[in-house]
């Protein structure tokens, strides 16, 4: 048989699953105005900063609309000033009984109407100025651009459903994953105490990526019996990429001084879990044990075993309680027993 010792050590309580990398934020860039695209100011796949110019739409029609709105405003301001002067004059004439009350009210009503027209003209100028600003399309956030979905020279329509480009924020970034609902109570309890560590392992990459749990969904998926979680990763080196599958380890807490044995030592029978211990007389003794969590290659044993005892990890097929065993030395170890 091959053997190992039962040892006490700190064991992390972890949940392991598969996760998907998702952008921290995604924005589909669309045009708010219609017109020709006169300039594309970035390259596909380029990192862009918040406020950086992405597209320029032909501004000349919008500039003309703004100039017309300003001209209308100037005309109506002049009319309003004239109406105010008339109102002042008619007020004095009314006091001297030179005009009727009806004539005065007509002049006052005209002045108030022109005042409202001036306010509407000012709003039209503001609206035209905003539309002119929309002719320059800027990045709403830091991120990375995807495929360019329209080329320079094409005509775009205002609020068209088809985006011009899609920007994904990849630093920071999310890893979304689901865990069985039986872990929910423990996760919520530990998350209330501290930010829980989440580790992502990229396929064929030996270095893990460290993050923190940032989201617990508000309901359990009835179809799968799982709860959706998200971890946030700084991702400054861009090792995580949207759409990527990763192995995820969520660490809940650490169990200090836990008694552990290799997973291979634990057997399952009709009465539950058990293992074989090698006695001082080199006999195999069966022990019924209560086991806890598994962490890596070890299993926590809650009862039925004491620290330092030697358990059998290989050679169970020919074992029976009380039989004599010969301990096979580990590979590369001339000393024999572990």
Task: Output the keywords.
338 residues; five-stranded antiparallel β-sheet; disordered C terminus; alpha+beta; six-stranded antiparallel β-barrel; 3 helices; 41% strand; single chain; 19 strands
What does this structure look like?
The chain is α+β, with helices and mostly antiparallel strands and 338 residues long. It is 23% helix and 41% strand. The protein contains three helices and 19 strands. It has a six-stranded antiparallel β-barrel. Strands 1, 14, 15, 16 and 19 form a five-stranded antiparallel sheet that branches. The protein has a four-stranded antiparallel sheet with strand order 6-5-3-8, with no helix packed on it. Helix 1 (60-95) packs antiparallel against helix 2. The radius of gyration is 38 Å and the shape is elongated. The chain starts with a strand and ends in a 24-residue tail after the last strand. Residues 333-338 have low confidence and may be disordered.
